[in-house]
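RECORD TYPE: inverse folding
INPUT: structure tokens
STRUCTURE:
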């Protein structure tokens, strides 16, 4: 997830400048089971259907990493969505092969929307055709099913369930700039927006992330991985196949991960959408009304951008940014294994700029509209109108254009960050709850590399200051404490502000320091080796450092020391520097680098920093 907390707006406020609609994709044919899919071998027909989602060249690679592809968990999903009533209902069947040395004695299912309250209910459970009781799990998002009799390794388990959910209304003003910030400009635990709008509804968007119950990974002690912590990501799962049908009213459209298999009109006027996904670690579902779309193709990947009509121009730029980022990453990180990738505009809240899932990401509506009306992000906050008037007087009429340009850079950077998540941790899996620094730091640094590759080193250095260094410095100016970045998401007592400053700001710069130590050739060789080695697998928190050491053996000890310094210790002030508002303006250069704030304006802005930071 790319956070978009309140400190960033202050960064924008003091930052200087840096550097015809495509046709709608044709409707796919209705569902049909192919006679065979190249590379699928003799797998079951429904698995062959799912494997259409994998590029032909990737099917053998997936099998080498995961074993026989018909042995992966399978989810059969049938959901009906009633947007007006904010209801979702249907059936889910989970089928998996018992693995490990011991018989399978229990199953857990995770429903992330239940982290705050019981918003999704499961009932009528049947295990291998026999009615069973669902029991509460060790945390609110989990439910447990006893497997009796136990299933021996290699045996198959089938669990059928009825799913019903009531979708809460989105946070007030979530589609607007200020409302999307979650009140305290960063939200998280402080604003009550623990899921950033992942399971919420507005008049035109119903986000159903987490409504499909999924089996969580288990740790070495046989316990399910931890679930949502109120900040950061919510869950990640073992690679699995999904066949889904999503039925919505006429005028609405369904979006999900996978290859689209058809849009079939029902007799009652509704439309049934179908998707097939292969070897994916999650299965997000969104439903929209009146959205437009634009498509592009990048190395046999169909890239789609879905957006509200009023944001069509931005939605097409988002398509360009996503396509460019994917093209750059495929050159250096290896091919994306899937045939389809979607970016969907969504009214995220609580400071989130985007949310990532395999094959589909969302980007906040507030970012789509930021350039057109940048000052709306801060207007109306107590004391901010006065500060803006004084600051605008000091900066002149060009400030609005500078703010708009900076917000556009943030949009492009956010899209690149979410595309990078297709590799970290979509392809190279890692625990986003226990070890969030692993995938977030790599996605953040990869997005910075994209800016370097697409726009040059000067632009990348400028954005590094805006998106990584300045957030950390402003967090410290607000009274926040530096500390260890490598810790579970739930261990950041300072909430989203501390999490963002350390995990998104400081931690990614470890990779810059490692690159400078070992040189570009060895560094990028190690990045590619890391992706190739752990493709479709789980990586550990130190696995990337290990690959760096393999690529540069003389620097192995120094690389380990860098990781300790940047991730486990508190040297942020020394490594990133301390700053005040005037210093930050000078560091950014441009017109603002020559401006001197009067004492009254500087004092007012400094007094507002704690409010912006949610302190």
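DESIGNED SEQUENCE:
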């Amino acid at each position: 997830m790319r956070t978009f907390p309140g400190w960033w707006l202050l960064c924008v406020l003091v930052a200087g400048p840096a550097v015809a609609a495509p046709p709608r994709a044709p409707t796919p044919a209705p569902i049909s089971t192919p006679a065979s899919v190249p590379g699928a071998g003799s797998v079951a027909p429904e698995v062959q259907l799912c494997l259409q989602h994998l590029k032909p060249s990737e099917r053998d690679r997936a099998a080498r990493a995961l074993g026989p592809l018909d042995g992966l968990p399978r989810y059969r999903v049938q959901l009906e969505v009633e947007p007006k009533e904010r209801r979702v209902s249907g059936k889910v069947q989970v089928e998996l092969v018992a693995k490990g040395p011991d018989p399978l004695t229990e199953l857990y299912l995770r429903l992330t929307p239940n982290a705050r309250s019981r918003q999704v209910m499961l009932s009528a459970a049947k295990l291998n055709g026999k009615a069973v009781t669902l029991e509460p799990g060790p945390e609110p998002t989990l439910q447990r099913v006893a497997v009796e009799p136990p299933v021996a390794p290699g045996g198959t388990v089938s669990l059928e369930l009825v799913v019903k959910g009531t979708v809460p209304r989105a946070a007030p003003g979530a589609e607007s700039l200020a409302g999307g910030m979650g009140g305290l400009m960063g939200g998280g635990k402080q604003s009550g927006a623990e899921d950033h709008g992942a399971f919420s509804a507005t008049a035109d968007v119903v986000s159903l992330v987490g409504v499909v119950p999924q089996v969580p990974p288990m740790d070495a002690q046989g316990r399910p991985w931890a679930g949502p912590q109120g900040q950061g990501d919510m869950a990640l799962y073992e690679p699995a196949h999904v066949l889904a049908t999503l039925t919505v009213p006429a005028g609405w459209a369904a979006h999900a991960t996978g290859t689209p298999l058809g849009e079939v009109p029902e007799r009652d006027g509704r439309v049934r959408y179908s998707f097939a996904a292969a070897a994916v670690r999650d299965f997000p579902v969104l439903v929209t009304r009146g959205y437009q779309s634009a498509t592009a193709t990048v190395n046999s990947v169909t890239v789609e951008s879905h957006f509200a009509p009023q944001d069509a121009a931005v939605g097409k730029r988002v398509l360009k940014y996503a396509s460019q980022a994917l093209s750059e990453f495929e050159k250096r990180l290896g091919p994306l294994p899937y045939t389809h990738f979607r970016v969907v505009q969504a009214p995220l809240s609580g400071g989130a700029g985007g949310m990532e899932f395999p094959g589909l990401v969302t980007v906040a509506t507030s970012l789509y509209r930021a350039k057109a009306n940048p000052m709306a992000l801060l207007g109306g906050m107590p004391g901010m109108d006065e500060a803006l008037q004084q600051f605008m007087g000091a900066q002149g009429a060009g400030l609005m254009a500078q703010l708009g340009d900076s917000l556009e850079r943030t949009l492009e950077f956010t899209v690149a960050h979410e595309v990078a998540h297709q590799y970290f941790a979509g392809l190279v899996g890692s625990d986003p709850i226990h070890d969030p620094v692993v995938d977030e730091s790599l996605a953040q640094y990869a997005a910075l590399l994209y800016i370097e590759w697409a726009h040059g080193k000067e632009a990348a250095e400028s954005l590094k200051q805006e998106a990584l260094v300045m957030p950390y410095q402003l967090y410290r100016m607000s009274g926040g404490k530096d500390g260890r970045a490598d810790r579970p998401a739930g261990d950041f007592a300072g909430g989203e502000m501390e999490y963002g400053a350390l995990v998104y700001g400081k931690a990614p710069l470890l990779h810059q320091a490692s690159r400078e130590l070992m040189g570009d050739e060895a560094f990028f060789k190690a990045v590619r080796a890391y992706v190739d080695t752990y493709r479709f697998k789980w990586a550990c928190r130190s696995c990337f450092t290990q690959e760096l050491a393999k690529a540069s053996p003389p620097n192995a000890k120094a690389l380990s020391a860098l990781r300790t310094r940047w991730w486990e210790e508190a040297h942020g002030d020394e490594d990133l520097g301390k700053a005040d508002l005037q210093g930050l303006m000078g560091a950014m250069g441009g017109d603002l680098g020559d401006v001197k704030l009067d004492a009254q304006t500087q004092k007012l802005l400094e007094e507002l920093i704690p409010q912006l930071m949610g302190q």
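NOTES: The longest helix spans residues 398-420.
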